[in-house]
Amino acid sequence: MNRGMRQRISPLIFSLFLVFLLGLSWFSAIGRAVEDENIQLLDKSAKAFSSVVKKAGPAVVHVRVEKKGGMSPDNQFDPSDDPIFKHFFGPSFKHPALPQAPEQFKSQAAGSGFLISEDGYILTNNHVVENADKITVRLEGEQELEGKVIGTDPQSDVALIKISDGHKFPYLPLGDSDQLEVGEWVIAIGSPFGLDRTVTVGVVSAKGRNHMGINEYENFIQTDAAINPGNSGGPLLNIHGQVIGINTAIFSRSGGYMGIGFAIPVNMAKTVKSQLLASGKVTRSWIGVGIQDMNGELARSFKMTQKSGALVTEVSKDSPAAKAGLKQGDVIILYEGKPVADVADLRNQVAMTPPGTKVDLTLVRNEKQQKLTVQVEEQPGDMMTQSGTPQQPQILQKMGLSLQELNAELARQFGYAQGQGVLIAGVAPGSPAALARIQAGSLIEEVNRQPVHNLKELQQAVQQSGNTENILLLIRSGNRSQYVVLGVK
């Protein structure tokens, strides 16, 4: 290569090298711009959450409750109450070292709530204020005011209380939970473990959760926003600062947060709130049918392609359903044109319909669709008996046990087999069951040495025993089972 050629190539190489350096600089600048843009997006998201919390925080309150009754903590166990003790010493014998009349004490509980009007109305959970003798509401700034119960609804676990000091209170707007989508951001604010206005963020994990055994009427929003004891009654907010749910329960094997929390949809709470405000109670409707969930096997048996709907197992005499012509074996698939997913869905829709309303039902009968018009009526006081649903034996209620049928969903959650026994849904504090260390989530497999697979069999076993003093239960908790004798005075 001659000298002239080398002189011509050298500037070319130098130019290419400069282009390369400029390219690197350009790509580096683009990278920094993208990185800055991502950081700005994260910053905007953080500020959006912060903005919602700043506006909503002052309307979230801490609810403290005092209840009278129960035995003094020092006298919670009286050996003379033990059935074996009574067998040897007689039912009237009292231990000489213990007082004949247990002293009363005050117990305290706490939860959360949120203001829904400037004149001091507050929504919370029924289980937060149930049987309260005194309610104290702590506002932002540590101001404390006495709360008054306007009305409660144990079946949905919603309560309405009120405070007043002559001032206008900050309050939260109520959103539309029907428009909520799975995957949306949500914000929970409350007082877990007494830590006021604690904020957690998550997403909507699922909608329409039922068969949980928490409330009688269930249609829960499931969220992974951290919810812990004390969050009950607090708001679940969307990113616009609107309440879309009332935080009410968690699924936990430890008692603390495990990534699954449940909130009552605000649309259900709105209906309950309106009735509590108007009359202090909730009136629900019924049509008078026994129903069960459809599944693949039943759908094939009824020659149906869809697995959703509510299968009518019985029709109560002289009920709205009987008057409208519903029959055993009908499958209700639409309620006022809205698809019926399952039993819980139909019950919720019927219950929230004002008594006296005429509604259209679409059902499948003998493989053909047809429509019937039913006029819903107010639920009778003895509806549980009329619908054929077995009631809990009174003796077990006195012992402090709340029982629940072990359906497929609950069996899966607690690690049991469906039909294995009857689930213990709750244990009253200070009750004989609590003193025997029986825990919610355990299973009753036998009553007086007789196997029981459901509430009906349990009721029959109790009636056959004829013993009103004590009862022998086989209790299973996880992989361990033991016999427990419970007695009442």
Q: What are the key terms here?
A:
Pdz3 Domain, globular, 489 residues, 6-stranded antiparallel beta barrel, 6-stranded antiparallel barrel, alpha+beta, 12 helices
Walk me through the structure.
There is one protein chain. The chain is an alpha+beta fold. Among the domains are: about 55 residues; about 100 residues, Pdz3 Domain; about 100 residues, Pdz3 Domain (Roll). About 25% of the residues lie in helices and about 30% in strands. The chain contains 12 helices and 26 strands. Strands 1-2-3-6-5-4 form a 6-stranded antiparallel barrel. Strands 7-8-9-12-11-10 form a 6-stranded antiparallel barrel. Strands 14, 15, 16, 17, 18 and 19 form a 6-stranded antiparallel sheet that branches. Strand 10 and strand 11 form a beta hairpin. It is globular. The termini are far apart.
Q: How many helical elements?
A: 12
Mean pLDDT: 81
Number of strands: 26
Uncertain runs are 70-103, 384-389
Q: What is the quaternary state of this protein?
A: single chain
Describe the biggest sheet? 6 strands, antiparallel, barrel
CATH architecture of the domain at 285-384: Roll
- Counting helices, strands and paired strands, the structural category is alpha+beta
The radius of gyration over CA amounts to 30 Å
**Beta-strand content estimate:** 25-35%
How is the largest sheet built, in terms of strand order?
A: 1-2-3-6-5-4
CATH superfamily of the domain at 285-384: PDZ domain
Helix content: 25-40%
User: How far do the termini sit from each other?
Assistant: 116 Å
The CATH topology of the domain at 285-384 corresponds to Pdz3 Domain
In the CATH hierarchy, what is the class of the domain at 285-384?
A: Mainly Beta
- Shape, per Cα inertia axes: globular
